[in-house]
Amino acid sequence: MRLLKDFRKEEGLRRSLLRSKNNTQHSKNLKMLRNYSNSRTLGDNIRLGTLTAFTAGTINIASLLIFLSFTSNVTGHYAILAAEISKGNWSQVAVVGGWIFLFFFGGFVSNFIVINFNKKSKYFAHSMPIVLEILCLLFVGVYGQFFYRRTLEETEFLVSLMLFATGLQNGLTASISNFSVKTTHLTGTTTDLGILFSMFTQKKFRKNGELIARAKLLTSIMFAYVLGAVFSGLTYYYLEFRVFYVISVCLLVVIGYDMYKIHIRHFKTQYRYSKIYKKPNLVAYLYDKIHGIPEIKEKRQEKRKLVFED
Fold it and tell me: Cα–Cα distance between 210 and 55 in angstroms, integer?
């Protein structure tokens, strides 16, 4: 009987060790996702989503008015690709296929930068795709303002550059938010909102904080995209290609906000650490030099005496 109990105890221990090993391996597989998403709050994702959705809306309407082509998504381009294949128009198949590839390649480049440089420099990893997008849009704006002759070849080239730029943006926002934020198209957003609102018809789902947060995020992205599109449509007739300069400024705001998230908060954290643990560092020294050292009035405490010491 005792041997049987010992055998069961050893078997239970072996199973628990095996279960622990499997959980450890599973957690290693999810490590990359945790690094990207768990440190981001709902407010972070809403600010990221609204800013980038606004720029995506402006880009899409500007390209529609100028080039008669959508550039913030490739859903319609897949349909055009299929139509050109059925017609046997292989030159257009190559062009449209190249557009789709550049949107794909933009997402590839963006996430490649994030996963390879995130540990070395988080600010570089997050800002470099946006910098590349700004350079693409500035090139489109400058070329369109001074050199554009409205030829078919020029139009195809500029559309491809804008698709690469929006692919960069979509890849970045999806990567750093664990695929919670995608701002260059609203097909999936509209579908998700329809599903969420149908769930809210039941009381138990209306009390679910995660579902409410998701609905807030998607709604803010949708309104920001439409607002950006309306803004682009109204200002294009006055600014024309200069509207891309305005879009670049909006993207600079995104980079500035990310710099605040990474550097300014880190600065404050280092200062608080030095004050709590009494370990001076360069950050705390500079902070004190800028803001001044607060005066601390030390109170003299009299030594307490025990009763039997009198």
Answer: 27
